[in-house]
């Protein structure tokens, strides 16, 4: 009968009011089945999110909360900073001027307060700290600025300035009213290879490397204890800021201690070439006999 079939469909007409899918052949799933499907997939989605959060915390970036005033005014108590944990996996070591988070080398921090006696609170804290959303009750980390790296000689007398390899640092980040050094605590140290010397920006309120010189590690922090570099203040929003390296750490001559080694290696490599060239010249132009 004319009009019984839509042109080109080749199939029976669909009764009025029946559900159709996109191609008009199969009934569309009901809203109830969609709801059930979502709740079935929700645990999988949560699991994937947790795995991604754990991988990001372990290998890429982690948020840390500032617990003290030792880095004022660069960082305030309660700030949240994002720490780059990726570059150390590629062999990067701390550089002068960076703000870094590191594990307690031993004896720098007091014992942690006991965990909550409430099992529910303790379980939530353990779970959130596992994926990096809050600090662990057992975590003992510090945040300071790197002043010297392996091979550097760092010194200060009186109220300052601090010198690195004989070059005075211009430190506008030091807390207003503080002096670069604490009078009565002069120091001169040579940083061992694979270690760093750290100081807080709030110099008169920071128990940094200067206060641990008589302990086993002599105030030096092993590179292996460094969690990563703090790169940005992420929270609160009105304090968002990039933690760049101050220009004073790139002044000419500050790398004097480190450039001696490449120069010596270059000289040692060039010496055989000079000797070979001299021997060839003597062979091609022998001295005349008198």
Distance between the termini: 128 Å
Question: Which series of helices and strands comes N to C?
Answer: HEEEHEEEEEEEEEH
The secondary-structure class comes to alpha+beta
| Average pLDDT score | 76
**What's the shape?**
globular
Detail the poorly predicted runs.
1-11, 18-23, 111-115, 257-271
Beta content: 15-25%
Helix content: 10-25%
Structure explained in plain terms:
The radius of gyration is 32 Å and the shape is globular. It contains 3 helices and 12 strands, in the order αβββαβββββββββα. The protein has helices spanning 31-60, 119-130, 256-284, and strands at 61-65, 80-84, 99-103, 141-149, 153-156, 163-164, 167-168, 187-190, 195-199, 221-222, 226-235, 241-242. Strands 1, 2, 3, 4, 9, 10, 11 and 12 form an 8-stranded antiparallel beta sheet that branches. A 4-stranded antiparallel beta sheet has the order 7-6-5-8, with no helix packed on it. With 290 residues, it is an alpha+beta fold.
Short description:
By secondary structure, the protein is α+β, with helices and mostly antiparallel strands. It has 3 helices and 12 strands, in the order αβββαβββββββββα. 24% of the residues lie in helices and 19% in strands.
Map the helices and strands.
Blueprint: H1 31-60, E1 61-65, E2 80-84, E3 99-103, H2 119-130, E4 141-149, E5 153-156, E6 163-164, E7 167-168, E8 187-190, E9 195-199, E10 221-222, E11 226-235, E12 241-242, H3 256-284
Antiparallel strand pairs: 1-2, 2-11, 3-4, 3-11, 4-9, 5-6, 5-8, 6-7, 9-10, 11-12
Short descriptors:
four-stranded antiparallel beta sheet, 19% strand, alpha+beta, single chain, disordered N terminus, globular, 290 residues
């Amino acid at each position: 009968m004319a009009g019984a079939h839509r042109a080109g469909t080749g199939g029976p007409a669909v009764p009025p009011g029946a559900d159709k899918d996109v191609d008009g052949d199969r009934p569309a799933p009901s809203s109830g089945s969609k709801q059930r499907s979502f709740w079935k997939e929700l645990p999988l989605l949560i699991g994937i999110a947790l795995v991604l959060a754990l991988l990001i915390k372990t290998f890429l970036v982690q948020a840390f909360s500032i617990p003290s005033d030792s880095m004022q005014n660069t960082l305030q108590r309660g700030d949240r900073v994002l720490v780059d944990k990726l570059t150390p996996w590629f062999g990067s070591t701390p550089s002068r001027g960076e703000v870094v988070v590191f594990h307690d080398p031993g004896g720098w921090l007091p014992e942690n307060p006991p965990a909550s006696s409430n099992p529910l609170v303790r379980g939530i804290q353990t779970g959130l700290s596992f994926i990096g959303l809050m600090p662990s009750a057992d975590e003992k980390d510090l945040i300071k600025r790197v002043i010297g790296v392996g091979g550097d000689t760092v010194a200060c007398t009186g109220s300052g300035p601090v010198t690195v390899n004989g070059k005075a640092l211009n430190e506008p980040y030091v807390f207003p009213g503080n002096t670069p050094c604490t009078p009565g605590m002069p120091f001169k140290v040579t940083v061992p290879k694979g270690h760093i010397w750290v100081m807080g920006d709030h110099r008169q309120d920071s128990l940094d490397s200067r206060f641990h010189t008589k302990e086993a590690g002599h105030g030096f922090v092993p590179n292996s204890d460094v969690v990563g570099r703090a790169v940005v203040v992420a929270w609160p929003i009105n304090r968002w800021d990039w933690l760049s390296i101050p220009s004073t750490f790139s002044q000419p001559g500050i790398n004097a201690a480190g450039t001696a080694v490449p120069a010596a290696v270059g000289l040692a490599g060039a010496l055989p070439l000079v000797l070979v060239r001299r021997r060839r010249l003597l062979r091609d132009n022998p001295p005349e006999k008198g």
